[in-house]
Design a protein that fits this description.
It is a single chain. By secondary structure, the protein is of the alpha+beta class. The chain has a domain of 95 residues. Helix content is 38%, strand content 15%. A 3-stranded antiparallel sheet has the order 1-11-10. It has a two-stranded antiparallel sheet with strand order 2-3. Strands 4-5 form a two-stranded antiparallel sheet. Helix 1 crosses helix 2. The N and C termini lie far apart (69 Å).
């Protein structure tokens, strides 16, 4: 029986070869037509990019829950997550809270935040490809301008408006969270961190009763003074403002001036400013205009963003009593973006 099957196959391929040899042009044209017809199926191909469809087994309960959540609580935010670990040592030996890794993490974060999309060039390209006349509908003009995560701030009727902002905002703030929040994103502070300062800031981050815009990475920060930690009574607020002003006069003196009818505070020398939180405090007014009553501006000027070490780092050994200690192989970062279809 095996010889019969083998013989049939031999005769079949022999006949195919003979026909191709006798009709080469027809065979070539037929092959091309057949290939083109098969390739036509690519027009109906849909590229599946949803990770839940790519990696989760079809029919699983998790997919049903995912569909229910999306249908019941729709959102126009897209969350981008990433974690990073040490590139030069094994993960078991990695402590991402070492100063050099936090400093490198800060550099990468700055590069991500500074990504800018030239929407004007995009509109010009779309006009070139699709515009037929001056009266054409051009829905892509909404992309015009420069787009970035935080946007470009401008003053409009006494309020700050962010043009080209793509982040998902929680109130006036862009939503994002990482271990860098503990250091206020201050370039000078982060570039001059040592291990003791990192632990000091992390272990006191959640102990704040009110948000302190100054750094937590140095022991002489007014944030550790009892009056600034409490910040309840008029006397505590006044004393805290005095202490903060004296501190800023040493760490980062500022000048406040009028620009286009608005007060603007700038450091005397940004290169030597050791705590950029002083720039924020400089906008709150002078303590010399007050007595023991609460100053016009409050030290608690913004809603605190951030969380415990366990929320911004992975594989941690944090407890309620010991705080941050041990090795942290990975830092965790998220930044939600607006997924508004118009942008």
């Amino acid at each position: 029986m095996g010889f019969g099957i083998e013989g049939c196959l031999e005769h079949f391929f022999e006949s195919v070869g003979r026909k191709v040899g006798n009709h080469p042009v027809k065979s070539l044209i037929g092959s091309i037509i057949f290939t083109v017809a098969c390739c036509g199926g690519f027009a109906f191909l849909e590229n599946e990019t949803r990770p839940e469809k790519q990696w989760v087994p079809a029919g699983s309960l998790a997919l049903e829950h995912d569909e229910y959540v999306k249908a019941t609580w729709p959102s126009n935010a897209r969350f981008n997550f990433f974690s990073a670990t040490c590139a030069d040592v094994a993960e078991a030996d990695c402590n991402i809270l070492d100063p050099k890794y936090l400093q490198r993490f800060h550099e990468l974060n700055a590069q991500i935040m500074n990504i800018t999309i030239d929407g004007t060039s995009l509109v010009a390209d779309l006009d070139k490809d699709h515009k037929r006349s001056e009266g054409d509908n051009r829905p892509w003009t909404i992309y015009s301008g420069s787009w970035s995560f935080s946007g470009d701030p401008s003053s409009v009727n006494g309020s700050v408006v962010f043009n080209g902002r793509k982040c998902y905002a929680f109130g006036p703030f862009c939503g994002r969270s990482s271990v860098l929040d503990v250091f206020r994103g201050d370039d000078y502070v982060i570039q001059n961190l040592d291990s003791n300062q990192i632990m000091l800031a992390l272990n006191n981050w959640e102990d704040q009763e009110t948000f302190c815009p100054l750094t937590l990475a140095t022991a002489d920060s007014p944030c550790y003074n009892s009056t600034c930690k409490a910040y309840n009574t008029p006397q505590e607020r006044y004393t805290c403002r005095v202490e903060a002003t004296e501190y800023c006069n040493q760490k980062c003196p500022t000048n406040t001036m009028m620009v286009n009818g608005e007060e603007v505070t700038i450091p005397v020398n940004i290169a030597t400013c050791q705590d950029r939180g002083c720039i924020q405090l400089g906008n709150l007014g002078s303590i010399s205009t007050t007595s023991t009553s609460a100053p016009g501006g409050q030290l608690n000027t913004a809603a605190r963003q951030g969380s415990l070490c366990a929320d911004v780092t992975l594989s941690s050994s944090i407890t309620a009593k010991t705080g941050c200690e041990g090795h942290y192989p990975k830092p965790f970062f998220f930044c939600p973006c607006s997924s508004d279809s118009r942008r």
